[in-house]
Amino acid sequence: MTGYNADNPLIVQSDKSILVEVASPRYALARDAIARFAELEKSPEHVHTYRITPLSLWNAAASGMSGAGVVATLVEFGKYELPESIRRDIVELMSRYGRVRLVREGDELVLVGEDDVLITEIFHQKEIRPLVRERLDRFRLAVAPGMRGAIKQTLVKLGYPPEDVAGYVAGEALEIALRETSRATGEPFAPRDYQRESVDVFHAGGRASGGSGVIVLPCGAGKTIVGLAAMEAVGANTLILVPSTVAARQWMTEIRDKTEIPQESVGEYSGQAKEIRPVTVSTYQTLTYRKRKGAPMPHLRLFSERDWGLIIYDEVHLLPAPVFRATAELQARRRLGLTATLVREDGHAEDVFSLIGPKKYDVPWKDLEQQGWIATAECTEIRIPLPEAERMEYAVAEQRLKYSIAAQNSTKEAIVEALCRRHEGEQILVIGQYIAQLKAVAARLDAPLLTGKTSVGERERLYAALRNGEITRLVVSKVANFSIDLPDVSVAIQISGTYGSRQEEAQRLGRILRPKQDGTLAHFYSVVSRDTRDQEFAAHRQLFLTEQGYRYNIRYGHELPELALAPAEEAAP
């Protein structure tokens, strides 16, 4: 057959889907190559499905890939000859990134392009007209004041993502230097090579094109250090937004430990304190607080309280809609998004691209694992049946209640207890969504329970107790998904989650990925009810991690309780 290569794993189809054969000897190479410009959709045992989308191609273009480079990758790993329509579509779509640019001409923000027909087409779009002041000439449109973010959002939706080289205000200067030793331990400290490289790519030497975008690194890979190094590069007042007060405190601790910034220059703006200082750390929840539905959000004014030179969005994939809207007005400020995954379940991925910036840097999780920067992890899904009574309840339940019934399978408590016995002496997190279920598990394990109702002080006390070995087991709700520094936790047991959330799965595995001093293997267990919505959602939850190279070992309840887990079926979901 012409153009046929049996050893290659990719089958590229004319609908822009890519089938990837897992058994191929070139699977891992191909997976890592296409992850730069395609999105994983399904990952059953033998053939994974990726899809090439405009946004995935534009992120690739923003990172420096060319359409010819994408085509060459598909040809290199393709089993069959690449359809000509795919070649043309990829090159055409990627060429759209940057065909128009936002530039600064004096005090005027101008949209420019080299194709006067394209500029004419854009100018006559009804969505664009309210965003531009006038047409200056064949190749230039004057953008209306305050519309820098809005016009970028609109142009992305129209299929012509602009390259924003209009530059940024410097912000109020602040001398920020990283320390060479940790204040707390006295040990030498320096950003790792990949952390420095990510900041260099983000900042681009201070050029107009540098200073906005997203850096994607695994949990445990030191995204906070990247943020501190970016602050040093920019050298200006900085606003840091994080998902929780505990995360805010951890950022403040790291700032004081690893930078020369005076303590009095670092402030917390949260429910507990309202300090606005040269470096201010706040939470998304605080910014979006309002007394009642429809009322104004008074704390959004924090964005204009100081002359910020840099705004850092930690866990940017969690950014709430009101912060997106506020960010649309902040396009003259440098913006850095930090995340372990750009996956969003709410359809706002385009807004991250438009308003925070394109993906600037990404490292496959397995690469950092192989280099020893994050722990080696083994993922296991344990499938158990529903007890007969619960099975009947599930059978007659309305569709919207089925997942809750399956996820709270009472048999899971015994499985969790058996897993804890198997890992006796190790530090263990049990993670779930349903409070009643978590209370039952905590009581059975005689372990503390941490939920959204647990005070910030008590949360910090429990985390400290786990770190210093005072306790070895902690049962947590979804409030512990993000930004928790627990370097010695080596086992996570997930008993329920937020339906099919891929981002949550990644964050939960991330709780155990900080490298262990003794090289301990990390274990991530997901306990699911077989032949139910729980199992279906588990398969979807695992998609992102499968893309990163993790495989889930599938085990069944009849192999327990003594946890003789091998040999049995092994599969990537």
Alpha-carbon distance between the two ends: 32 Å
- The tally of helices reads 21
Strand order of the largest sheet: 12-13-11-14-15-10-16
* Counted beta strands: 23
CATH architecture label of the largest domain? 3-Layer(aba) Sandwich
- CATH level-four homologous superfamily name of the largest domain: P-loop containing nucleotide triphosphate hydrolases
Proportion in β-strands = 15-25%
Helix/sheet category: alpha/beta
Which fold name fills CATH's third level, the topology of the largest domain? Rossmann fold
Question: How would you sum up the global shape?
Answer: globular
Q: What is the number of domains? A: 4
Assembly of the depicted chains: single chain
Q: Tell me, what is the CATH class of the largest domain? A: Alpha Beta
Rg, nearest Å: 25 Å
Taking pLDDT < 50 over at least 5 consecutive residues as the criterion, the unreliable ranges are 563-573
Helix content: 25-40%
Most strands sheet: 7 strands, parallel
Question: Can you give the mean pLDDT?
Answer: 88
Name its key features.
alpha/beta, Rossmann fold, 573 residues, seven-stranded parallel β-sheet, globular, single chain, disordered C terminus
Characterize the structure shown.
- 34% of the residues lie in helices and 20% in strands.
- The chain has a seven-stranded parallel sheet, with helices on both faces. A seven-stranded parallel sheet has the order 19-20-18-21-22-17-23, with helices on both faces. The chain has a five-stranded mixed sheet with strand order 7-8-6-5-9.
- The protein has four domains: 10-96, no CATH class; 100-164, no CATH class; 193-363, Rossmann fold; 369-559, 3-Layer(aba) Sandwich (Rossmann fold), CATH 3.40.50.300.
- The protein has 573 residues and is an alpha/beta fold.
